[in-house]
Each structure stands twice: as structure tokens, then as C-alpha cells.
């Protein structure tokens, strides 16, 4: 693996560096999107460039993006493949769209203009201020547990085991375009095929959690320079029910303990 370091911003503490935002959206999460966008504009302590929503070309989604002043991108126009080309399911679950969304996130280097862009899951709302570049270093929000299968795939994909002793899965992450492009080039050189094909070949598709874009990118950076990033605890809280059911007062109470809340709809993955 090449010896490369994290690409940061020049000068200052990073707060003046503009970042773009990329939100892959499944139609099931359209109701949460306004709260996600509002939270980014309120709590991300960097100048926000362009917010791009990548989603199926549904009229209600396109109209919602226009209302929120977000750029809409048809998810079928991003890669040579679409979710229809992905077969990742069993009798009990369907994860093809989930995997395709990860490929869309890893396409941010061609979708975003700013050198650094923030990927947000469309079901996750920030409830506290967030900084993603500090002292010229990227800031990663992490947790202490993960899915073991993510790292089995990582070893097959990258040729080495996980580098970090913690998990990068936090429902949002800052990506650097240069580093992301290098990661994909490394995968393609090693496997002699397109990076997304290599991911699918390295996965055990009998397992419902077999690949993580966040673990892959985060461990790639950590392996190059463990001291080149800042780690903070994610402190995410999963909430049952829709975002409209949670009161502002409850959000204020949750913000005393958590940084973000996620409104997961796991049943969407079940058959």
C-alpha cells in the first residue's frame, strides 16, 4: 500500500474551509430530509458550499430538493451500474439498495466541487455543533463497536487487516476527494477491475452486513498516518418513529448526551 498522508486544509484551524455536503436518499427517508438539511446548515461549523442529494428520479424528491435549495442528482446517472445491477439479498432481507447507496457515497469525488465533502445519511439529524477539520486535520466521529464482516471484506479488498482499534461508522463522515480517489485507484490496481466490482467480489453476500464505506475509507487513512486525524466519540442515538413525532424539547434534552439522532427504518430491508 502506498505511503500517503491525510490531505488537510492550509492555514488556520480549518473552520474557514468550505465543504460540500452529499446526501444519498432512499425514497423511504424523504420525510426526514428537511430536518437533515436544516441540521447541517445549523450545526456544521464550516461554510457550506453545495448540498447535493442523490436519489431516484421521483417527482416528490425533485420538488423537495428544489424547496430545500439542494442540488438533485439522478442516482442512475452517477455510475455505469445502478441498483438493478446489484444482487445482494436473501429470503429474509434485501440489501441491494443499501449497498448501492454506499457506492454513491464513494462517488462523491466526482459529484462534489469542494476538496472536502461531508456525507450524511438521510435518516440522521445533527443536534449539536460539529467541526470536521481542526488544526489542518480531519475530524472523525467514531464508536467502539462494528460488524466483524466489514473487516473480513476489508482484508480481502485491501490485502491487510483493519488498522484502527475503533469503528468509523457514525452515519456521517468527511471525505477528502484526493484521498478517496487514491483509495479507489489502489483497489482497482490491486484487483484489476473497477472498484465497485472489486467490492462486490470481495463480499460474502450471504451476510447482511458485508461492506462499510466508512470503515474502508477510515481505515485506509488511518493505516497511512494514525496521527493525521482527530477522533471524537459519535454519540449517536437511534430513535423509533418518524422525525415529526419528536418534540423540540426532547431534542434539546437528547443534545445534552448525544451529538446526533437517527430515525432508522430497518423494516425496509426485510422481506
Labels describing this entry:
single chain; 271 residues; alpha/beta; Spore Coat Polysaccharide Biosynthesis Protein SpsA, Chain A; five-stranded mixed beta sheet; three-stranded mixed beta sheet; 9 helices; 11 strands; 32% helix; disordered N terminus
Structure report:
This protein is α/β, with parallel strands linked by helices. The chain has one domain: Spore Coat Polysaccharide Biosynthesis Protein SpsA, Chain A (Alpha-Beta Complex), CATH 3.90.550. It is 32% helix and 18% strand. The protein has nine helices and eleven strands. It has helices at residues 33-43, 59-67, 96-105, 108-111, 148-158, 177-191, 195-202, 213-224, 248-254, and strands spanning 19-24, 48-55, 71-74, 116-120, 124-126, 133-134, 137-142, 172-176, 230-233, 236-238, 260-262. A five-stranded mixed sheet has the order 3-2-1-4-8. It has a three-stranded mixed sheet with strand order 5-11-10. Strands 6-7-9 form a three-stranded mixed sheet, with no helix packed on it. The model is unreliable at 1-12 (pLDDT under 50).
Amino acid at each position: 500500500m502506498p505511503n500517503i498522508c491525510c490531505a488537510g486544509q492550509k492555514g488556520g484551524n480549518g473552520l474557514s474551509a468550505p465543504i460540500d455536503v452529499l446526501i444519498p436518499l432512499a425514497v423511504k427517508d424523504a420525510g426526514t430530509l428537511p430536518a437533515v438539511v436544516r441540521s447541517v446548515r445549523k450545526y456544521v461549523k464550516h461554510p457550506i458550499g453545495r448540498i447535493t442529494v442523490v436519489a431516484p428520479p421521483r417527482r416528490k424528491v425533485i420538488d423537495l430538493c428544489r424547496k430545500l435549495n439542494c442540488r438533485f442528482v439522478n442516482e442512475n446517472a452517477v455510475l455505469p451500474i445502478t441498483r438493478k445491477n446489484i444482487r445482494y439479498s436473501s429470503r429474509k432481507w434485501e440489501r441491494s439498495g443499501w449497498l448501492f447507496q454506499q457506492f454513491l457515497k464513494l462517488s462523491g469525488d466526482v459529484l462534489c466541487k469542494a476538496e472536502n465533502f461531508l456525507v450524511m445519511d438521510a435518516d440522521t439529524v445533527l443536534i449539536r455543533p460539529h467541526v470536521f477539520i481542526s488544526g489542518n486535520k480531519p475530524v472523525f466521529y467514531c464508536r467502539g463497536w462494528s460488524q466483524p464482516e466489514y473487516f473480513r471484506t476489508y482484508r480481502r479488498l485491501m490485502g491487510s487487516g483493519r488498522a484502527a482499534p475503533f469503528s468509523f461508522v457514525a452515519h456521517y463522515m468527511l471525505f477528502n476527494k484526493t484521498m478517496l480517489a487514491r483509495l479507489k485507484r489502489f483497489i482497482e490496481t490491486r484487483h484489476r477491475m473497477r472498484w465497485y466490482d472489486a467490492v462486490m467480489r470481495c463480499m460474502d453476500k450471504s451476510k447482511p452486513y458485508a461492506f462499510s464505506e466508512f470503515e474502508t475509507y477510515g481505515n485506509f487513512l488511518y493505516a497511512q498516518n494514525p496521527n493525521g486525524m482527530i477522533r471524537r466519540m459519535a454519540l449517536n442515538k437511534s430513535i423509533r418513529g418518524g422525525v415529526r413525532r419528536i418534540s423540540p424539547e426532547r431534542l434539546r434534552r437528547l443534545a445534552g448526551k448525544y451529538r446526533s439522532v437517527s430515525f432508522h427504518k430497518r423494516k425496509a430491508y426485510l422481506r
